[in-house]
Each structure stands twice: as C-alpha cells, then as structure tokens.
Design brief:
The complex is a heterodimer of chains A (304) and B (276). Chain A is flat, with a radius of gyration of 25 Å. Chain A has 304 residues and is mainly alpha-helical. Chain A folds into two domains: 3-46; 67-300, MetI-like (MetI-like fold, Orthogonal Bundle), CATH 1.10.3720.10. The longest helix of chain A has 44 residues, at 3-46. In chain A, 40% of the residues are buried. Helices cover 73% and strands 1% of the residues of chain A. A two-stranded antiparallel ribbon of chain A has the order 1-2. In chain A, helix 3 (73-104) packs antiparallel against helix 9 (207-235) and helix 11 runs antiparallel to helix 12 (272-300). Chain B is an all-alpha fold and 276 residues long. Chain B has two domains: 2-58; 67-235, MetI-like (MetI-like fold), CATH 1.10.3720.10. The relative contact order of chain B is 0.14. The chains are: A mainly alpha (304), B mainly alpha (276). Chains A and B meet through helix 1, helix 3, helix 4, helix 5 and helix 6 of A and helix 1, helix 4, helix 5, helix 6 and helix 10 of B.
Chain lengths: 304, 276
C-alpha cells in the first residue's frame, strides 16, 4: 500500500468521524446553546437593566443594580443566612452519612432495609417534606414540642425564632440528603481492598484507628466530591425556606436565602434586572468557594 | 473477642435503628395526621398518636379541591418528557464525545462542563422569557423545556462509552459497519445501565423540581404535584390533615416505584452521582 492510499483512507475516516460526530452532537449542542449558554449572557446583560412589570420598559442603568445590591442590607443578610445554613447542613450531612456508610459496609442483617429507609427522603417531593416538617415544628400543636413538653422541657419556636430557624431548616436539609450521601460513600467504601483492614487487624489496630488511618484517607476523593457538590447545592437552598416560612414570619429576614431573594425580585416583584444581579452574586460566590476547595484539596485528598 | 464483636454489632444496630426511626417518623406523622380530623390533629390533651377513628375526610376534600388525576398526569408528562429527551440526546452526544475524534470536540465538551458548573438559577429568567415569548406558558412543553437536553447526562454517557473496550468498535468496523451502525448495533446497547441511571436521576429531579413549575405554570390545571402542593399550602395554612393528605397523595406513587425498584434507584444514584 502506498503512503498516498493510507493517507487517503485516513482522511476519509477523519471526515466520516467529523460528520457523524457533529451529527450526534447537534441536538445537545443546539439545546445547550439555546437553553444555557445564551441565557448566561442574557442574565449578565439583564443585570445592567431596570425592568418594569411584564418585561416592558427595559432601561439601561449600567452598574446601578450592582451598586444597589452592595448597599442592600437584606442581600448581605441573605448571603450570611445562606452561609449559616450551609455551615450547619454540609458538615453534619457528610459526617452522619460517613458513619452510616461505615456501619453498613459489612455483611449484616437488615442491611438492605436500612439502606431503603435512609434513602427514602430522597424520593419524596421537597414540597411535601417541607410541609410535614413545618407541621412537626409547629410551636403549639407540633409533635416535637409535644414530646419535649411530655419530658418536662419547654416548647421551642423552631421556625419562628430568628436565632434557630436556620438550624431547623438545615435539619430538614440534612434529613433529606444523608441517604444520598450515604449511598455515594458506600460506593466509595466498596473500592477499598479488604486486605488493608486484614493487615491492620493483624497489627492490632482498633476499629477506630482503622477508620482514621485507612478508611478516611482512602475515601477522601469521594468526600471531596460530595463536599463540593453539597456546598453548591446548599448555597442554592430555596424549596424548604419557600415552603416552611411565611413572609410575615419574624424569623424570615434572618433565614431567607440568596436564591429566595432572586426568586422574589425576579418573579414576585418582576424586577428581573435586580434578580439577575443577585444571581450573578450567587454565581461569583459559588465559583469562589469551589476554586478555594479545589486548591485546598491538595492538602487532604489522597489520590492513589 | 467474639463477645466484644457481638457487643459492637449490638451498638451498631441500636444506632442504626434510632436513625431509621428518625427517618421514618416524619412519614409516619404525615400518614397519621392525614386520617385525623382538624380538631383531633390540634388536640393536645389527650394527645392521640393514632387517629381515634380513621377518617377519609381529608383525602376526599383535597381530591375534590385539587383534581389529583390531572396533577398526576401533568407530573407524568413532565417526567416522561424529560427522561425521553435526556436519554435520546445524551446517548448520541455521549458517543460522539467519548469515542470519536473530530474538530471542535474539545470545545463542545467544555460547553458541557461549563453548564454543569453554573448554578441553574442563572438560566431561569431567560428560559422563562423564551417560553413566554413562544406563548407556551401553562403547557406541558413549558414544564419539559429546561430538560430538553442534559449536560449532566451527556457527561455520564460519555464516561460510560469511554469505559468500553476499543476492540469492539474495531471488530464492528472490520465487519463493514459505518460509524452510525457501530453506534446503533454495538456501542449504544452496551451503555444501557448508564441510561437506566440517567433515567432515574432525571425522573427524580423532574419530580422534585419546584421553582421552575412555580414560575411557568401558574394555572392549577397545568401544574405538577410539587407546585400544586405549594399553592395548596398558601390557601389552607392551618388545615394540617388536608395538607398531610395532599402530601401523602403526592409522595405515594414515587415511593411505591422506589420500593419496587429500590436496587436500581440506589445503584443508579451511586453510579451517576459518583461518576461526576
């Protein structure tokens, strides 16, 4: 075979891969560009405009939305609220899930049943979950306060005391997500070779020592992945706050999240320009925190 | 030694059971409250855990108010629509990104990754304006719209194709298959488990989506379950038996499907969630 024929065949193969490749990609690419890429730029663009009701009267106002945002105490408060929520939700949901996964990562009775039960909240509609918890938290007739009263403790205003409401909301978030985290950790644990533990057992290392010296380092890539995704999700908290707190709730200003403010301005008050500026702030915060995590991972994540 | 092990297992079971109770109580309380009357649900003295009489009043009332059949149907259309779109587009695009070499592939893949990293709220206003301009607010199309394509699914399928051995493709080509035939008869069938995982993932997230349905479908007859529950709560703040009955009716279908296919659900989530 001459070099020319080989070359020709190669270019023919290349051409055919090019055509098929783009043919297969076309639906996804058109969709991504229309549904996601252009909208990103439109949101940025929109954040420089003041929008009247019904999208009419788009007036260019430059950086005014951003200026307003930086002087808007409720935006800063919402940012703090969102962080407070994430600081409670993320670590606890991860720690509890790891412990559960370690418990369940063995041959034992009821393993499947436990797994089914812990994962159950994942398949419930958040709107329904939020309503049940709102009912459980009810200060007069709620089950939780009733249990507290019957063992001699005072009632707590779970979702109207401004100082603890974010914790109550975070508990719902933890309850909803530990099953999901647990399943991811179980998958990670199953990759750890059994002989690591057998060797440790021979050396006489206790279960707790094994956990810190074998399990934790080897599961750190999963932990990193779960942490990054959980932080991103927690910073977008909306459903539970929207469903569980009324706007008249005294705890509302100290609990409303950034995404709630975005929803309020964009769709309740039809000020899509200001809503867009808020979502740009959210984007910046998420990007910043994710980059920081990427940098810090070198210190604690072990890839083999 | 054996005794020590037995004690450890006992403690582990005890902790797991306590945790399991904490997971179950909210569901149990939802069920129990939905069979009570309003006065019984708010009665503290005596406090009844179980309804003194199992009434169906709350269920009858919410079914007549909310036309649940319609809500189930809307939710089903939303889920099935998004699952079909996701599976079709991701199966194709994942193959191109995972197995073929061509100009522009890197760029296309970077768009996919970029979409996955950006918080989804950033798309909502422009997507809403598009649906509104098309005069498609309050339709099934509006519900499905953001899920017409999936960056996450494309990524998932790409990973699945990349894990397949190269020999399969070469053998098919030697047999005279072109790329389309290789894809259709050899490669695509082998990524079925990833498609199952993607379907479960897409279905769950479509079912749980709240903000988008609230924004686009504001008329009761076009809402899915999630948005209808949110609206119901606004109307009947204090009627907890009815709110719980509606919540139960909204959750039951998915819970039944989950219990029937729990293995696929959990494995699907483990593989797709872990592959990111």
């Amino acid at each position: 075979m001459s070099e020319k024929v080989v070359r020709k065949r190669k270019t023919k193969q290349e051409r055919s891969e090019f055509i098929w490749g783009w043919l297969f990609l076309l639906p996804t690419m058109i969709g991504l560009i229309i549904l996601n890429i252009i909208p990103i730029f439109r949101t940025i663009y929109q954040s420089f405009f003041k929008t009247g009701a019904f999208g009419k009267g788009n007036i260019f106002i430059g950086f005014s939305n951003y200026e307003k945002m930086f002087h808007d105490a409720s935006v800063w408060q919402a940012l703090i609220n969102t962080f407070k929520y994430a600081i409670v939700e993320v670590p606890l949901s991860i720690i509890i899930a790891i412990i559960l996964a370690v418990f369940l990562n063995r041959k034992m009775r009821g393993r499947t049943l436990y797994r089914i039960i812990y994962f159950l909240p994942m398949v419930a509609a958040p709107a329904a979950v939020a309503m049940v918890w709102r009912w459980l938290y009810n200060s007069e007739f709620g089950l939780i306060n009733h249990v507290l009263n019957s063992i001699g403790l005072k009632s707590v205003n779970w979702i109207s005391n401004p100082n603890i409401t974010y914790i109550s909301i975070a508990v719902v978030g933890i309850w909803s997500v530990i099953g999901y985290n647990m399943v991811l950790f179980l998958a990670g644990l199953q990759e750890i070779p059994r002989d690591f533990y057998e060797a440790a057992e021979i050396d006489g290392a206790s279960g707790i020592k094994q956990f810190f010296n074998i399990t934790l380092p080897l599961i750190s890539p999963t932990m990193f992945f779960v942490t990054v995704t959980r932080v991103i999700c927690a910073l977008q908290v909306f459903d539970t706050i929207y469903m569980m707190l009324d706007i008249t709730n005294p705890a509302f200003p100290k609990t409303q999240s950034l995404v709630y403010l975005f929803y309020k301005y964009s769709f309740r008050e039809a000020n899509k320009g200001y809503g867009s500026a808020i979502v740009m702030l959210l984007l910046a915060v998420i990007m910043l925190i994710t980059v920081i995590q990427m940098i810090c991972q070198k210190k604690w994540v072990h890839y083999n | 030694m054996n005794k020590k092990k037995a004690i450890t297992m006992g403690i582990i079971h005890l902790l797991l059971i306590l945790g399991a109770i904490a997971m179950i109580v909210p569901f149990a309380w939802m069920i129990l409250t939905s069979f009570k009357s309003i006065s019984e649900s708010t009665q503290m003295n005596p406090f009844n855990i179980f309804p003194t009489k199992w009434r169906l009043d709350a269920f009858q009332s919410v079914i007549s108010k909310m036309s649940f059949l319609r809500l189930y149907w809307n939710t089903l259309v939303l889920i099935v629509g998004r699952v079909i779109c996701a599976v079709l587009t991701a199966t194709l695009a994942g193959y191109a990104l995972g197995r073929l070499n061509f100009k522009g592939k890197e760029f296309a893949f970077s768009l996919v990754l970029f979409q996955m990293m950006v918080p989804s709220q950033i798309f909502i206003i422009p997507q809403y304006l598009m649906v509104s301009k098309l005069e498609m607010l309050n339709t099934s199309f509006a519900l499905i719209f953001p899920g017409l394509v999936t960056a996450f699914g494309t990524f998932l399928l790409r990973q699945a194709y990349m894990g397949l051995p190269k020999e399969l493709e070469e053998a098919a080509r030697l047999d005279g298959c072109n790329i389309g035939q290789t894809f259709l008869y050899v490669m695509a069938p082998l990524t079925k488990s990833s498609r199952v995982a993607l379907s479960i993932f897409t279905a769950l997230f479509a079912y749980k989506d709240l903000m988008w349905p609230l924004v686009v479908n504001t008329e009761q007859r076009t809402m899915p379950l999630s948005a209808a529950l949110a609206k119901l709560q606004g109307q009947f703040v204090a009627n907890y038996p009815e709110l719980m009955a509606a919540s139960l009716l909204a959750c039951i279908p998915m819970i039944i499907i989950y219990i029937l296919f729990q293995k696929q659900f959990i494995e699907g989530v483990a593989t797709s969630g872990g592959k990111l």
